[in-house]
Queue: 3 jobs
Job 1
Amino acid sequence: MSRIKLLLDVVSDLRSLADSLQAVADAVAQGGQEQPDQTTEKKPAQKPEKKTAAKKVEPPVEKAEPKPLTLEQVRAALAEKSRAGHTAEVKALLLKHGADKLSDIDPAEYPALLADAEVL
């Protein structure tokens, strides 16, 4: 029985790793696309001072940046907790949030789920 559990843990970890790699690849792809656009926008904005001041107003907009958590991010965080020996607690958290498995949980519950997981 312990071999099966170990294999299931390995499969879970591999899935988490694949999800994390996908998230990194997506971030790199998006970062590469955004930088040329930002560079193009900054050159005209630097000539007139008023537009430069408008660019300084953007950082508060970036504070409203909390993007919705993705399944991959939540899965990675819970996998770390599970590897740290909190597998039973992670499963209890999933049940507390209304599902037997992470993919069945409503994405709106992800922030609360991660907050509960951080306590572990």
Job 2
Amino acid sequence: MGMDALVFDFDGLLMDTETTSLLAWQDLWRWHGLELDVAGFFARHGGDVTAERYAALAAAVGPAYDQDASHARRQAVRTELYAALELSAGIGPWLDDAEALGIRLAVASSSPREWIDGHLDRIGQRDRFELLACGDEVRAAKPAPDVYLLALSRLGVPAERALAFEDTVHGVAAAQAAGLRCVAIPHPNADPALFTTADVLLTSAAEISLESVIARAERRQ
């Protein structure tokens, strides 16, 4: 098998924090008697868009908006939701198989290290990953290739010997810009039809073995 390393996105891929985040924001809008526009919720790039989301809510609510109360409400709801999160379906067996095959594991995410470490530590999965490349360590978020280039540098492997796994179009673009082939598993609120450049497109990690997905990616030149 020609892959030395697998590099995973975190949010929406290893763990479905994307859906959980959406649910917390929907609750907050409903708390204000409003409905969130789900179609415009997910950014077309990586990185933190929390300030923009609060600004949109404040504009919708008007003068009665209370930022502190809104933030407290969202934090309480999302803490409860995040506490129930585990690895996405099929990811655990893939990690087991990678370890059995001697393939190294890394994370490349636009999120900060504290966020990723906290979630992986809570579910006892942090030690399975040799290294993290995080958004607070690079200049530009995805679709810029910065976090993937950082991951490759830390791994010490060439891009053609590593395979990326992503759940967003901008994540696929970032991985491919760094020279990696990329397996896309769109998160539940992403449109699979937009993932036209992905080397492999899946609906779930549970639908195929790791060896099979690597073989499919390797056939793409």
Job 3
Amino acid sequence: MAHIDRTLWDGVALRRMRAGADPDAAPRSVALPRGWDAEAGVALAALVPGSGPVALPRAAEAWIGRAVRGGLKAGILDEAAAASLAEGLRTLLLTRRGAPGAEVWRNDGKAVQAEPRFVLNLPAFLEAEGGFDTQGYAEACALAVTALDR
């Protein structure tokens, strides 16, 4: 079970819904942050293998944990850098600025090794005044590369 206490997830209010990516399959119980639309629930139901209940914090912590452990094991990250990477990935996900490709969520080892992906949501970097958060985008790119490198 993924550890979420004392992380960014600790204060996130979740709502529960029933969703399924396959219209012929029974819908799953999905827990995601309040304010996220039903499409996000359908996407999460499709991303996480299985047919049982799924919660965004637990599903995300599974791939975040793999990235952090890989960096620690390879000696690329120390404890502080690992904690920073994990919190940065949580922030990207919760702000809907970025997330890894489906193969990372599904822990598909062959696909991750062959062609890992991280998807950035460009509209999430638009500023209220009409500009683009270039610094935030550059930081998100660097974070995504770091995560995929692990």
